[in-house]
Write a structure and sequence with these properties.
heterotrimer, A mainly alpha, B alpha/beta, C alpha+beta, A: mainly alpha, B: alpha/beta, Rossmann fold, 6-stranded mixed sheet, 4-stranded antiparallel sheet, 14 helices, 17 strands
């Protein structure tokens, strides 16, 4: 024995789990939806993705190194996820400088101002997205044509925008123009942000994360069920005015939000019970905004609002203690 | 579907390298250092002095209170000094140094290998003899066994649980003992049942020891009231409360003893020691110790006299490998890292584990990402991430409300944390402070 | 339009008046009668809320002062005699003069003097390290160097020496609040009488092992030889458990003990250089 023995408190072994591995698994889970976005929107999707990822990484590095003066932690993979999610959440026609502003809002305001990974209250990518949505409403709601549309159409409305118009003007669902079929939307032949259009591929990613135990079932299932039940009630009352509940679940950012953003470990509750409360809350707020709010889509706001309740949920919803309360 | 405990748990790689190695008798050492505090409770008081001749099995330190126990000489020879020397904590503890000379045993110990099945003593006498023989829980907690057998007023034991779980990775001493001393363990269980006045005993064994389950199951037919319960492999099933939960489904209330749900838990090693103490009149001065590690030449199970230096065991197993980074007394999840090879084997030493250099250092601490893995693996249903923060920030009254004292220090949280945070370090620190707070309040 | 403005003003005025009435009655109902001198005393205190006086903060100390019939047991170590005089004059009591004190860390076991025998790898606080085992060196009494005292100090009076890893007290910043004394799990820190020009003669060791054991673990350990006790003309040095201790209230800084100490465990600080070189420093023998 040439060297000194190490002494440390127990336990003396550690699982092979690491933060990087968890983050990378989330990235793997997003790959199918990402590829679909590139297929549908072409090179513009690649452009948005690269700008978003690179600017998120660069901003984290610069702020940590020169403002916070700590060791940069861009290798942990969390900035990468934020970058991909931000790209998923914006129209692919967005100018490069708006994406960079979004990245600054996401990383600087949403994450590092709280102290960095693990300390942020709100989902950084959503902070970035909502910041852009409020600051640049025109650019953020102009959707370029997908490959499925005729060449001369420059932009098209998202299904949710169509529905919103219908509700505002009192046009019955059956008379709405430009609503794609359910099956088209499930596969992803509709319009929207780069990463949100294919419900099926997002679910596949979610199943992968469930299998790898990156996420738990409580949050996504409770969000989706709440949306289904509440919109189902409205639909049963008045099927003329309100769309089929399945429509609500597979359009817009609901799948992306429920599977990839609401489940963000840092900003979701610690216990299963807490996650159910959180999920139901997100579902209720989402559907209220969609039906009664000013915006056609509400999942981003819903997640951010419920993020703010997470510390409270953690405070009062405790895991089942051994030996009773 | 195999039984296991309901909340939390992890499954670290088992690495039972020495499970097929028969128990070997370790050659007598030249000197021994026998600490007087080898159990939970008051240290025993030395009754020998420098220059005294002692024999194997002679009492050299006397139990000083009810929660305390006798210490016996494990060798014959001359007491060289009664002094302080470092035990596994690194702090000097009082003990007795003996220079070994021959191997002369005190009279009355039956050294034959014959199985004595007939039980000729009654319950109270068994308890008395267990106390005299210095028997403590050999699973590692070293709580004096006689104290457990006498339930507090108003409580009654209904079932005896025998812990053959050995959920710690690497360790195989209990496993080997079950295979090689099955009958003796069975008689020991009968003795414990008689002492407690119960007619039912269940041996809990994890499913990774099918040979032991099979063997003990066969033996059960000959011993009334004893049965074997195979369990799903899950750490920390060997924890008293987890074992009770796994076998009976009951939960010991927070802050209460197992007797509150009518259960008493003893280790298989303890059952064997009880057999030897009563049927063979042999006090507890030797035990089976697993010496193991990935780099070790021959991982082994040794029958070792208490007080033997760690270095002798490792020598017998092939010497310390070149790239050893850490040596642990006990298992990798709950054992203590030792700083020197002079540390003696005590009644609670279940194994010695040599960890290689590259595995010995902890990984870099990263920020908590609130993945809630610690919460989901905690077998007590606590929130380790929160308790760590409360310990770190020294908010002890809140930590008490979050039930920090329920923590059994199994280490599942630190084991599983993807950010390699030292959860248990801070929780243990907080427990110490909260414990002191509670004690000062009671005064 | 103008009617809206009027409405607004009237409504706000009514709400404001109602709130004022409610506030007035609530304030009357829940009025706490407090001795006005508490505020005065609180004002006179430094306001550091360090707890050095033994109370939860300056306000609690002020309350205690006002209640007390004599100031004998009450002392604000931060403010010193001046502050206590002010407090005494507010309360019309007699201030008890106390010697100013300063913290000292009684360990000089740097890596050079005290070879490492193992390496610790756990949460880096002294409290946790000391609960796990005796420490990285052969000396179980010595400084662990994880800086619990540094963390405890609210006055920036402790720095961790970058090379030795042992904390050092900056005498001019130390206010003797005692936070570091409580934080040190090895009980190394003592509040000693502050001498002119910050001069010090201290046994910088807490090792209570027998001479040989102590010496093996650390070359500058006190080995309990007792030479200093014999040498001291003022009976300021006592020997207990193989460890010498210099009472700072009795020490007259003659430095005779420093000269006779065979291991250099007694340290002198802030003196002008001596004319004659003291005992020749023995070569440190590496252990092993």
């Amino acid at each position: 024995m040439s060297k000194l023995l190490t002494v440390s408190p127990s336990p003396h072994v550690h699982s092979s789990e690491s933060t990087q591995k968890i983050m990378l698994r989330v990235v793997y889970a997003m790959i199918p939806a990402m590829l679909w976005g590139i297929y549908m929107f072409g090179l513009d999707a690649v452009r948005v993705g690269l700008i978003s990822i690179l600017s998120c990484l660069a901003i984290e590095f610069l702020i940590q190194k020169y403002i916070m003066k700590v060791k940069p932690s861009i290798t942990d993979g969390s900035a990468l996820i934020t970058g991909v999610l931000l790209a998923f959440n914006v129209p692919v026609s967005l100018p490069w400088w708006i994406i960079i502003i979004g990245a600054i809002a996401a990383m600087g305001v949403g994450k590092l101002s709280f102290g960095g990974l693990g300390s942020n209250v709100f989902n950084p990518a959503l902070v970035g997205r909502v910041f852009l949505l409020i600051s640049f409403p025109v650019q953020m709601t102009s959707w370029p044509a997908t490959r499925m549309m005729s060449v001369d159409s420059v932009s098209a409305a998202t299904p949710l925008a169509v529905i919103k118009e219908g509700i505002k003007n009192g046009i019955p669902v059956s008379q709405l123009q430009g609503l794609p079929d359910l099956s088209d939307m499930a596969i992803g032949f509709n319009n929207g942000s780069m990463g949100e259009i294919s419900a099926i591929l997002l679910i596949i990613g979610g199943l992968y994360m469930l299998w790898k135990k990156v996420i738990t079932w409580q949050t996504p299932v409770s969000i989706i069920l709440t949306v289904l039940v509440v919109s189902g009630i409205f639909w049963l009352i008045n099927p003329e005015m309100y769309v089929n509940p399945v429509y609500h679940v597979i359009t817009g950012g609901l799948m992306l939000g429920a599977i990839f953003m609401a489940t963000d470990m840092v900003t979701s509750p610690m216990t299963g019970k807490g996650q159910l409360i959180y999920g139901v809350g997100i579902g209720l707020i989402t559907i209220s905004i969609r039906m009664f709010g000013a915006y056609p889509e509400g999942i981003s706001f819903a997640i951010l609002i419920m993020n703010a309740f997470v510390p409270l949920i953690n405070m009062y919803v405790k895991p089942k203690r051994f030996g009773g309360q | 579907m195999l039984k296991t405990f309901k909340i939390g748990g992890v499954h670290p790689p088992e690495n039972k390298l020495s499970k097929d190695k028969k128990i070997e008798v370790l050659p007598l050492p030249k000197t021994v250092f026998i600490p007087v505090a080898q159990h939970i409770g008051a240290p025993a008081t030395p009754v020998v002095k420098k220059g005294d001749e002692v024999k194997v099995g002679q009492v050299i330190a006397q139990s000083s209170s009810f929660v305390s126990t006798n210490i016996h000489s494990s060798v014959s020879g001359k007491v060289t000094k009664v002094d302080f020397s470092a035990d596994s904590s690194g702090y000097p503890k009082q003990g007795i140094f003996i220079a070994v000379d021959g191997d002369e045993w005190i009279e009355g110990i039956d050294r034959s290998e014959d199985l004595v099945k007939e039980i000729s003593v009654d319950g109270p006498e068994i308890v008395k003899k267990i106390q005299e023989a210095g028997i403590v829980g050999l699973g590692g907690a070293t709580f004096p066994t006689h104290v457990k057998l006498v339930p507090p007023k108003g409580m009654k034991a209904e079932v005896l649980l025998i812990n053959g779980v050995e959920c710690e990775p690497y360790l195989t001493s209990d496993h080997r003992l079950m295979l090689e001393k099955a009958d003796e363990i069975m008689v020991g269980i009968q003795l414990l049942m008689k002492a407690m006045g119960v007619d039912k005993a269940v041996i809990g064994i994890e499913n990774n020891k099918p040979d032991a389950i099979k063997l003990l199951n066969e033996k059960c037919s000959a011993y009334k009231g004893v049965s074997v319960q195979p369990l799903k492999v899950q750490y920390p099933q060997g924890g008293e409360k987890q074992l009770i939960n796994a076998v009976t489904g009951k939960e010991v209330p927070s802050g209460a003893l197992p007797i509150a749900v009518g259960a008493v838990v003893s280790n298989v090693g303890t059952a064997f020691a009880v057999y030897e103490a009563i049927q063979k009149n042999k006090p507890l001065f030797e035990r089976v110790v697993t010496v193991t590690g990935k780099g070790l030449e021959k991982p082994s199970n040794f029958l070792v006299r208490v007080g033997t230096a760690t270095s002798e065991l490792i020598e017998a197993a092939g010497g310390v490998p070149e790239n050893t980074g850490k040596i642990i007394s006990g298992g990798p999840m709950m054992g203590r890292a030792i700083a020197s090879l002079d540390v003696p084997v005590t009644k609670g030493t279940s194994g010695l584990l040599l960890i290689q250099e590259e595995e010995s250092k902890r990984e870099e601490i990263q920020a908590c990402i609130r993945c809630s893995r610690c919460t989901s693996v905690c077998p007590m249903g606590l929130e380790p991430y929160l308790l760590m923060t409360l310990g770190e920030k020294q908010i002890f009254d809140r930590a008490e409300n979050e039930r920090i004292m329920d923590c059994i220090e199994c280490g599942s949280c630190s084991y599983t944390c993807p950010s390699s945070r030292p959860l248990l370090d801070y929780i243990r620190f907080g427990k110490g402070k909260v414990g002191a707070m509670i004690r000062s309040r009671k005064k | 339009m103008s009617i809206t403005v009027v409405y607004t003003i009237v409504t706000l005025a009514v709400i404001g008046a109602a709130a004022a009435v409610i506030l007035y009655f609530v304030a009357q109902k829940f009025k706490v009668v407090e001795d006005p001198r508490i505020d005065d005393v609180d004002e006179a205190l430094p306001g550091a809320n360090c707890g050095g006086c033994g109370y939860a903060g300056c306000r609690a100390f002020a309350e205690a002062c006002v209640k007390a019939s004599a100031l004998g047991d009450l002392n604000c170590p931060v403010g010193g005699n001046e502050t206590m005089n002010n407090v005494a004059s507010i309360l019309g009591l007699e201030a008890v003069k106390k010697d100013p004190r300063v913290a000292y860390i009684r360990c000089n076991g740097t890596c050079e003097h005290r070879p490492k025998t193992s390496s610790f790898d756990g949460a880096t606080t002294c409290a946790i390290a000391s609960s796990v085992y005796s420490g990285e060196s052969g000396c179980q009494y010595g400084c662990l160097g994880y800086g619990d005292c540094y963390d405890a100090c609210d006055f920036d009076a402790i720095v961790m020496h970058p090379e030795t890893g042992i904390p050092e007290i900056i005498d001019d910043k130390c206010v003797a609040c005692g936070a570091c004394v409580d934080a040190c799990p090895k009980d190394l820190i003592e509040l000693r009488k502050k001498m002119p020009k910050n001069r010090k003669v201290v046994v910088s060791c807490r090792n209570q092992d027998k001479g040989g054991v102590a010496r093996k673990a650390c070359s500058v350990a006190c080995i309990g030889c007792g030479k200093c006790v014999k040498e001291c003309p003022f009976d300021a040095i006592t020997m207990e458990n193989n460890l010498a201790y210099i009472d700072s209230d009795k020490c007259k800084l003659c430095r005779k003990c420093v000269a006779v100490c065979p291991t250099g465990a007694i340290i002198e600080e802030n003196f002008p250089p001596r004319k004659v070189k003291p005992v020749e420093k023995k070569e440190t023998k590496p252990v092993n």
